[in-house]
Design goal:
single chain, 378 residues, alpha+beta, Beta-lactamase, six-stranded antiparallel β-sheet, three-stranded antiparallel β-sheet, 11 helices, 17% strand, globular
Length: 378
C-alpha cells in the first residue's frame, strides 16, 4: 500500500508541475504577443516621423523591451545603439538632487542651510534654503528671463555668469520662499554650484566619481558647451524639421545657455537609467532610509502639499517620474514602485508632445501614454 501511495503522490506532483508549466507558458506567450504588437506600433511611429530615439521597458530590473530608432547624428547617419547617449534635459534634476543628498548623508551640508552659507554673493537673498531649491519653492527668478534682459546671446552663459547677474541686478524673489511651488531651473543650477563649493570638485567630475562610475553608468556624463568633445563616445545630436511644412532635417542642439548644468546637462542611455533606477531601489548610493526624503511631498508655508519631492514628480499610485525637453531632445522616465516596472523614453527629434504623457495628447498620439497603458496590463 505504501508503494501505491508514493506512486500516487508522485503522479500528483508531476501533474501539478506540468499544469503550472503550461500556465506559465501561456502567460509568456500572451506577453510575447503584446510586446510584438507594441513593437509594430512603435515601428509605425518611427516610419511616420513621430519618434526618433530609444525606448526601454523593464520589470523587476529585467528588460522586457528595448529598441533604438534612427541615428545618433542625422548628418553622418550613424545608427543609434544601446550605447548612444541622449541629452535628458530636466530629467537631470533627480541626479543633481542625489548629489546634494550624498553630501547631506556625509554631513557636509544640511537641507535647512541658507544658500548664503555657500553663495555669499547672494547675501540679499537670505532666507532661501537648500530645501527650497530642491522643491522648487525658492521664489528665485528664472535665469533665462534674466539673460533675456541682460546678456549678449553671442556668448556662452555659464553658472558663474548667472551668479554674477543676480549679484549685480539683485532681482527680488517672486514670492516668499516656501509660499508657493514654481518650477525653477535657477534653483537647480545653484544646487550644482553648491555641490562644487562643498565638495571642492567640478560638478561634472563629482557626478562621474560619485554617481556614474560607481553605478557603472559608462555611457553617462555631464556635457555642455564647456565640455571636451571626447567626453562621450556615442553622443546623440538633437534635430528638428526646418519648418511646419518643411520636413528637411536641421540640427537643433545646444545653444548659448548651455554653459550651465544642474537643471540639465546629463547625457545618458536608457540602459544606464535602468542601472540608476535599481540603485535608487537598492539604496546603493544614498541609503534607502535617507532617500525616502526624495519621495516626501513638498509642504508649503500654509501647510498645503505639492506633489514634488527632491527632483521627482510624485504620483498618487506611488510611482515617481520626471520629463525633460531642451532643443531637439525629449525624455521621460517613470518608475512604478509597487509593481517594480520602469519606462524610459529618449527622443532627439523635437517630439516632446508625443513623449511626455502629461501634455494633453490622446493615447493614440502619445507614446508616453501608450507605454504606461502597456505596462499596466503587462
Amino acid at each position: 500500500m505504501k508503494s501505491v501511495y508514493l506512486t500516487f503522490v508522485a503522479f500528483i506532483l508531476l501533474f501539478t508541475t506540468g499544469c503550472m508549466k503550461s500556465i506559465d507558458s501561456n502567460k509568456n506567450d500572451k506577453k510575447h504577443v503584446k510586446v510584438s504588437k507594441l513593437e509594430k506600433w512603435l515601428d509605425e511611429r518611427y516610419k511616420e516621423g513621430q519618434f526618433h530615439g530609444s525606448i526601454l521597458l523593464a520589470e523587476k530590473g529585467k528588460v522586457i523591451f528595448q529598441k533604438q530608432y534612427g541615428y545618433e547624428d542625422i548628418k553622418n547617419k550613424s545608427s543609434l545603439s544601446k550605447h548612444s547617449s541622449f541629452n535628458i534635459a530636466s530629467l537631470s534634476k533627480p541626479f543633481t538632487a542625489m548629489a546634494i543628498m550624498l553630501l547631506e548623508q556625509q554631513s557636509k551640508l544640511s537641507y535647512t542651510d541658507d544658500i548664503t552659507k555657500y553663495i555669499p554673493e547672494w547675501g540679499y537673498l537670505s532666507g532661501v534654503t537648500i530645501n527650497h531649491l530642491l522643491q522648487h519653492t525658492s521664489g528665485l527668478e528664472d535665469y533665462i528671463s534674466l539673460t533675456d534682459r541682460h546678456w549678449d546671446k553671442s556668448k556662452v552663459f555659464t553658472t558663474n555668469d548667472m551668479i554674477s547677474l543676480f549679484k549685480e541686478y539683485k532681482p527680488p524673489l517672486e514670492f516668499v520662499s516656501g509660499k508657493e511651488f514654481k518650477y525653477s531651473n535657477t534653483g537647480y543650477v545653484l544646487l550644482s554650484e553648491i555641490v562644487e563649493r562643498v565638495s571642492h570638485e567640478k560638478y561634472a567630475n563629482f557626478m562621474k566619481k560619485h554617481i556614474f562610475k560607481p553605478l557603472h553608468m559608462n555611457d553617462s556624463a555631464i556635457l555642455n558647451k564647456l565640455s571636451e568633445a571626447s567626453v562621450l563616445k556615442h553622443r546623440v545630436y538633437g534635430f528638428s524639421n526646418a519648418g511646419v511644412f518643411d520636413n528637411t532635417k536641421v540640427l537643433y542642439d545646444l545653444n548659448y545657455l548651455d554653459g550651465v548644468a544642474g537643471d540639465g546637462g546629463v547625457y545618458t542611455t536608457a540602459s544606464d537609467l535602468l542601472r540608476w533606477s535599481r540603485a535608487i531601489k537598492n539604496g546603493t548610493l544614498v541609503s534607502k532610509e535617507n532617500y525616502k526624503k526624495a519621495f516626501e511631498y513638498t509642504v508649503l508655508n500654509d501647510g498645503s502639499k505639492n506633489d514634488y519631492g527632491f527632483g521627482w514628480d510624485l504620483n498618487k499610485d506611488g510611482s515617481y517620474a520626471h520629463s525633460g525637453a531642451w532643443a531637439g531632445f525629449s525624455s521621460y522616465m517613470i518608475q512604478d514602485t509597487k509593481e517594480d516596472k520602469l519606462i524610459v523614453i529618449l527622443d532627439s527629434s523635437d517630439n516632446v508632445l508625443r513623449i511626455s504623457p502629461s501634455l494633453g495628447l490622446s493615447k493614440n498620439d502619445s507614446i508616453g501614454l501608450n507605454l504606461i497603458d502597456f505596462m499596466k496590463t503587462y
